[in-house]
Design brief:
The protein is α/β, with parallel strands linked by helices and about 270 residues long. The protein contains 9 helices and 7 strands. Helix 5 links the parallel strand 5 and strand 6. Helix 3 packs parallel to helix 4 and helix 8 packs antiparallel against helix 9. The longest helix is centred in the middle third of the chain and has 29 residues. The chain binds NADP nicotinamide-adenine-dinucleotide phosphate. NADP nicotinamide-adenine-dinucleotide phosphate binds next to strand 5.
């Protein structure tokens, strides 16, 4: 989209969590070219420093604010640092995430999988967004973009804890969205399909067939920044979500078969 046609952002930095990840890096480098002041967050300080150097090489500006989203104190500190030193964000892009693929039989003694994933994918992002929504609403403008998953609203065997954490964030955001909108803050949800990043590699290999490239995924995030969208999601995911509600037994059966098929196909590609 040409710069002239993009929705204008208010003044203020763009905060990106998961900045150092597979999708995060190309996204940050695109944002840098646009001249936004960036606040880069993740846990790995060295990788954040490296990325902020790349931003500067492209003529952009960035500060790094490491934080572990599973740690409530660190999230609170991140909120305070951003507001005190960087200013009320023009946009918050909640991209950080963690996934675990584990069948039920192997999960029976692992309730901590749920704690770990809800900490990273639901509670941490929600704490961060809650801390920033007030000042953004007082200013009367801003955008919150949260990345969930195309299967967040489709029960997906083997991904129960991940799906629960992403579905929880999805439900929470949908519920607060109308009130946030009344204060001038738009909330957009991006349901990403499979993307060829480190996250997908343990299950699908390094070059899964049919996966988006990290650059394509980053482009979807930029699309949600540029247009007044509230949901970016593949057509199959929207349909799957409707079918999961309308015909749950059939949808669960089909999802199980389709999931296994997708995993097999992707792995076959990698072995070639
Ligand atoms: N890849 C896919 O197939 C796929 C599909 C659907 C949705 N998604 C979603 O897309 C988003 C980006 O995924 P990706 O593929 O770029 O994953 P990735 O390459 O594994 O990157 C994950 C990012 O999240 C950060 N992170 C992980 N745990 C964190 C924690 N506890 N606190 C703070 N930051 C943390 C990581 O940084 P540090 O390690 O430095 O903390 C890293 O920057 C995620 O929300 C993911 O769930 C991905």
């Amino acid at each position: 989209m040409s710069p002239a046609r993009r929705a204008a952002l208010p003044p203020g930095p763009v905060l990106v969590t998961g900045a150092t990840g597979g999708v995060g890096v190309p996204l940050v480098l695109q944002l840098a070219k646009r001249g936004h002041h960036l606040v880069l967050s993740g846990r790995d300080r060295a990788r954040l420093d490296q990325l902020s150097e790349q931003v500067r090489e492209r003529g952009g500006s960035a500060v790094v604010r490491p934080a572990d989203l599973r740690d409530a104190t660190q999230v609170q500190q991140l909120v305070e640092q951003v507001l005190a030193a960087d200013g009320v964000p023009a946009a918050v892009i909640s991209l950080a995430g963690h996934s675990i693929h584990r069948p039920l039989a192997d999960s029976l003694d692992r309730p901590h999988d749920l704690e770990r994933l809800t900490g990273t994918n639901l509670l941490g992002p929600a704490r961060l967004i809650l801390g920033l929504l007030g000042p953004m609403g007082e200013r009367g403008s801003g955008v919150v973009i949260a990345v969930t998953s195309a299967t967040a609203r489709i029960p997906n065997p083997g991904w129960a804890a991940y799906g629960a954490s992403k579905a929880g964030l999805d439900a929470w955001l949908r519920a607060i969205r109308p009130e946030a909108a009344r204060t001038g803050v738009r909330i957009a949800i991006i349901e990403l399909p499979l993307v060829a990043t480190a996250m997908a590699a343990p299950t699908y290999g390094s070059a899964p067939r049919g996966a988006l490239s990290p650059e394509q995924a980053a482009a979807l995030v930029l699309r949600a920044l540029d247009r007044p969208l509230t949901l970016v999601s593949p057509a199959w995911a929207r349909t799957g979500a409707v079918l999961s509600q309308a015909v749950p037994a059939l949808a669960a059966h089909t999802t199980g078969i389709a999931g296994a098929w997708v995993t097999r196909l992707s792995r076959r590609e990698v072995r070639r």
